[in-house]
Model the fold of this input.
Amino acid sequence: MKCRKCGEKAVINMRQHKLALCRTHYLDWIPEQTQRFIEKYQMFGKDARIIVAVSGGKDSLALWDVLHRLGYQTTGLYIGLGINGDTDYSAKSQYLSESFAVENELELILVDVAEEAGATIPEASKLTQRGKGKPCSVCGLTKRYVMNRVAQERGYDVLVTGHNLDDEVAVLFGNTITWAVGYLARQGPVLEETSDGLIRKAKPFCRFYERETAAYALLRGIEYIYAECPYAEGATSIYYKELLNQIEDGRPGMKLSFYLSFLRAKNSGLFDQESTIAKSKLVKCRTCGQPTTAPDQCAYCRTWDAVRSRRDVA
Ligand code: Q46
Ligand code: ZN
Ligand code: ZN
Done:
């Protein structure tokens, strides 16, 4: 297979785009496409102060690398969850995030959940029994909360995450088969900021297949953590990804077209009513002041208050 641009040996063939590229042209193509998506979905301008959520995985580090190469002002945010187990997941992912920042002379903000809130994510999960054994629900709400609060308190314009097309399509599939219209209304490349304190969020990699971001990270020599979080095993989203990959094998481009057709439907107003309802429900948490849909205390404050009181009793 030859590179379409120069005829040299191709390192990747993207069947859905009918495009094969060599190493050099691939490493140019990813930032060019990213810039195109940033403009197309009006994610942010050249002067924006951007905070990048980094997990030490390929997508977030590749995204940070691409934005840095494109000349954007970026700061990383790493959240230490305290998930270690056999693979030393949190310790390794923190080390790789810090190494990337040092090598590229970029600023990285570290937030350690145990220091900040009083317990690691697995400890908190055991204490509250949320999510029936798996810590993903307390983890997800904590990450969302910390990202929003840090970005808002430090005055960033936009929070970017490394979600790729496979992630987005798995979520879309899950929300479609349950017709979760409220979630569908909020899914997309950009989530606008709200006047009551939800920061603007953007996903510049949302149109790249996972194998494309992985190839970019490998070809750029970015060291990232290969292991998944140990709690990801058996997740429904992984099952959906496998199913969608089977369809993609027989129908190259299906994942991309599912996502783009959804965005077109959304743009034509399919979920407008739901978006308005979701926005109007936000109030300020009485404890921390962050926006919440709960009437009194936000889910983060309620959960972590319960964790601390149970920890003190134990
Ligand atoms: S939610 Fe669950 Fe992830 Fe948190 S505990 Fe691991 S798998 S990291 S995206
Ligand atoms: Zn080439
Ligand atoms: Zn709160």
